[in-house]
Structure formats: structure tokens, C-alpha cells
Amino acid sequence: MVKYVNVTLIVLAFLSACATSPLGRRQLRLFPASEVNAMGVAVFAKLKKETPAAKSGKVNRYVRCVVNAITAALPGTGGPGSWEVVVFQDDAVNAFALPGGKIGVYTGLLKVAQNQHQLAAVLGHEVAHVLANHSNERVSTAYATQTGVQQMAKIFSGASAATQERALAVLGVGAQFGVALPFGRTQESEADIIGIDLMARAGFNPRQSIQLWKRMDEAGGARPPEFLTTHPSPQTRIEDLRKRLPTAFPLYEKARLAGKKPRCR
Asked: Of 40, 145, 191, 229, which one is least surrounded by beta carbons within 10 A?
């Protein structure tokens, strides 16, 4: 009888945790948004301690201008004032957005993203990860594949804080190629689509997202085969973005008619 009860708890856990992304894809989310947000805040605080912030006022104003335009286009709440933005003085060609309203941009990215539209393509993509609850999904999937459904069921029956910390600790830990890696590529592709729409709604030219990925491809050098990475190849991304342009470009034109014309330099 106990075995049947445990199975029931596991099934209920999965059912209660199922959700959908903004594009309608089914997701597994096992953790409350408050816990995932707290994780994002903690990670951001750690990064700020370890990486120096850019001192250039011009660079900071430029990045914040693009970020403010992107976040102002977000649905519902979560406008510019609710996001903390830090420009990190680092040659890494990277940027990120974290649950809890945190955005980081590395100065190395500004050497590849040539204009406000290309920077908006990156930031739209990163903010899209937050909109789509990808962090919760990754933590949940990693936790399930690493610890098994029995441990997962304990979360829903009053797990200790230590158990929940272990669950969060597996974020980014790989499983089998057939589970972890394709799942990561699905999230990345989804963020590309949500992101190009978001940048268009903010008044940035979505065609520039394609130019950005051409430049990223040129800057990337040799890469492993796509099936061994968690990101789609630049060629795959470019093709997906081209297919989305008939949807995104009218959003851009509508935004421009509404007066959304960012001038970030």
C-alpha cells in the first residue's frame, strides 16, 4: 500500500509542476519562483564580487539605454526600474539575465555587437530566458535526472532546506546527451524566437539579429559538432531567425509608429 501511495505522490508532483512556456511548450517546473529568484540574486551578488564593473560612464549609459528599452517592452510588470544592470569589465563575449531581475553585460560583447540593435538582440534573448522560466526548468530537469523521482517526490512532502539546496546545486550539471543537451538547445532556440519579438516590440530592428549571429559566428572560431553542445549552431540560429522575421518585423513597424525609437549610442 505504501508503494502505491509513493507512486501517486510522484505522479501528482509531475502533474502539479507541469507548465507551458510563452510559445506553448510543456515545461517541468518543480520549484517556487521565489526560490529560483533567490538563486539568481545570490549568483549575481557573487559575480559582482568576483568581476570588476566597467567604470566608463559612456559605456554604462549605452548599455542601460538598451536594457531600459527592452525591459519597458515586457508584458505586465517588470519595467526598467525593477532590473539591476551591471556592465562587467571583461573581454568575454557574453551577457546574461537572471531570475530576480538581474542583467549583466560583459564589455567584450560590445566589440562584436556593433550597434544598439545587435546589442538588443543579445539582451532580448537573455531576458527571454527569464520570461520563459528556463532557469526553473533547467534546475527541475537536472534535479530529476540526477537524483531520481523518489527524491523529487520528497520536495512535495516537506523537504528540508538542505534537500532544496542540493536540488539547486545541480543546475548546469550534465546528464546523458539524449536528455541534457537537446533540452538546452530547445531553450536556446525558444529564447531566440521570444527575444527577436521582444527587441522588435522595443523598437529595435529585428533584421539586425541575423547580422549579430553572423558576427558571432565569425568571432567564435572552431566549434564542436552541434549535437555535442547546449546551443544551436550560429547557422541554425540564423535560419530560425529568418523564419521568424515575417512575424517580428510587423511588431517593429508597429513599435516605431507608436514612437518607440531608441537612440542608444
From this structure: 229
Q: Which of 35, 84, 126, 190 is catalytic?
A: 126
- For the question of residue 126 being annotated catalytic, the response is yes
Annotate the chain with three-state secondary structure.
CHHHHHHHHHHHHHHHHEEECCCCCEEECCCCHHHHHHHHHHHHHHHHHHCCECCCHHHHHHHHHHHHHHHHCCCCCCCHHHCEEEEECCCCCCEEEECCCEEEEEHHHHHCCCCHHHHHHHHHHHHHHHHCCHHHHHHHHHHHHHHHHHHHHHHCCCCCHHHHHHHHHCCCCCCCCCCHHHHHHHHHHHHHHHHHHHHHHCCCCCCHHHHHHHHHHHHHCCCCCHHHCCCCCHHHHHHHHHHHHHHHHHHHHHHHHCCCCCCCC
This prediction's pTM: 0.81
| Cβ contact 133:102 at 8 Å | no
By the 8 A CB rule, do 103 and 84 touch?
A: yes
Cell 529568418, located at residue: 242
Residues 45-67 have pLDDT tens digits of 989 999 999 999 999 999 999 99
Query: How far, in Å, CA of 193 to CA of 128, rounded?
Result: 9
Read off the pLDDT of residues 193-234 as tens digits, 9 standing for 90 and up. 999 999 999 999 999 999 999 998 888 765 655 545 667 888
